[in-house]
Each structure stands twice: as structure tokens, then as C-alpha cells.
Specification:
Number of helices: 7
Number of strands: 0
Number of domains: 1
Shape: globular
Order of helices and strands: HHHHHHH
Helix content: over 70%
Radius of gyration: 18 Å
Largest sheet: none
């Protein structure tokens, strides 16, 4: 299993629900459906879903929604797009299509529906903190492939320099956990002291 799969699943599953909770009106529902349909169509055409682009655009969307929070339909469209990517990743990991679609679409739809029905479902402060977490994971997803490639290159260079190989491989969970914790902790600290 690739190093990026777990952070990508976390970003797309959690991010879809967080962004969808901002679209609690008719335009939000349309944005959610449009983002879901457009991204599903894009991925079905054989276009690659690059984790660097997914992480970068998700981080950009989180920052945009934190700075200008009034565009619920845009946030819901991002939530729909992330749900379609979540479905594609789940299906690529071996989940049957019906189960992947159900697991990917049910949480954002439930978040959008609950936000529309109950005003106290997702208060503004909770959504902001969740968006900060999405931002941290999105940055982790965006930089992990480059960091992993650099680490592999360093290990390969060290292995050729030493006779008998190298035992310097960093476990995937350690890189993901430390990078994600540092990013989320730093962003949360900056956000609280603004």
C-alpha cells in the first residue's frame, strides 16, 4: 500500500463532510451535486487524480472558506468533489462500487441535511476548527509524495555508498503522523492567536 493512501482517505472523507456542512441551502445542495458529478465524470474519463493537486486545491479551498466564509455553495461543491475522490480511492483499494459510493456520499449528504435542519448542528467555530484540520491534512497530502521520493532517493544513495545495503527506511506511519501533527498543531496555534 502506498504511503499517501491513508492521508488521502482522511482528507477526502473528512474534508467532504466538513465542506458539505457549509452548504445548508438549495444552492449548497446544487453545489454538492455538481462537485460530485463533475469530479466523478473527470475521474471516469481516465484523468489521473494526483494527490499533490488534490491536497493543494483542498488547502486553497480551506483557506478561501476561512477567509471568506459566506460562499456555502462553493464549499459544498468542494465537498462533493472530495466525496467523488474518496469514492475513487475506496474503490481502488478494493471496496465494491456500491459500498464505495455509499460510504463516500452518505456523510456529506447527512452533514448538509443536518446543517439545513438544525441551526446548532455545526456552529461557525466548529467549522473553522474543522477547516483548519482539513488544511493541515491537505498540506500533508500535498507534500508527502515529494518528501517520500526524496527519502527514497537518500536511502538509495546511502545504500550504494555502503556495502551490504542500508537499513535507513523510515516507516510510513512515522512520516505521516509526525508531519500531520506538526502541520495541524502549528496551524491551530496560529489560528487561535490571530
Amino acid at each position: 500500500m502506498d504511503l499517501i493512501v491513508f492521508p488521502l482517505l482522511m482528507l477526502t472523507g473528512f474534508g467532504a463532510t466538513v465542506f458539505a456542512s457549509a452548504g445548508a441551502d438549495r444552492q449548497g445542495w446544487l453545489g454538492l451535486a455538481a462537485g460530485l458529478a463533475a469530479t466523478a465524470f473527470w475521474s471516469r474519463q481516465g484523468h489521473p487524480l494526483d494527490p499533490v493537486w488534490i491536497g493543494g486545491l483542498s488547502a486553497l479551498a480551506a483557506v478561501a472558506h476561512l477567509v471568506v466564509p459566506g460562499r456555502g455553495w462553493m464549499a459544498a461543491a468542494v465537498g462533493g468533489a472530495l466525496a467523488a475522490i474518496f469514492q475513487a480511492v475506496l474503490q481502488a483499494q478494493g471496496l465494491p462500487p456500491a459500498a464505495a459510493w455509499t460510504a463516500a456520499v452518505a456523510p456529506p449528504v447527512a452533514a448538509c441535511w443536518l446543517a439545513a435542519r438544525r441551526g446548532d448542528f455545526a456552529p461557525q467555530a466548529l467549522r473553522e476548527e474543522a477547516l483548519l484540520m482539513v488544511l493541515g491534512v491537505a498540506l500533508l497530502v500535498a507534500v508527502t509524495p515529494g518528501v517520500a521520493a526524496g527519502w527514497r532517493s537518500a536511502v538509495a544513495l546511502n545504500a550504494t555508498a555502503e556495502l551490504g545495503g542500508s537499513n535507513l527506511a523510515l516507516p510510513a506511519w512515522a512520516l505521516s503522523l509526525s508531519g500531520g501533527a506538526a502541520a495541524v498543531g502549528g496551524l491551530a496555534s496560529l489560528w487561535r492567536h490571530r
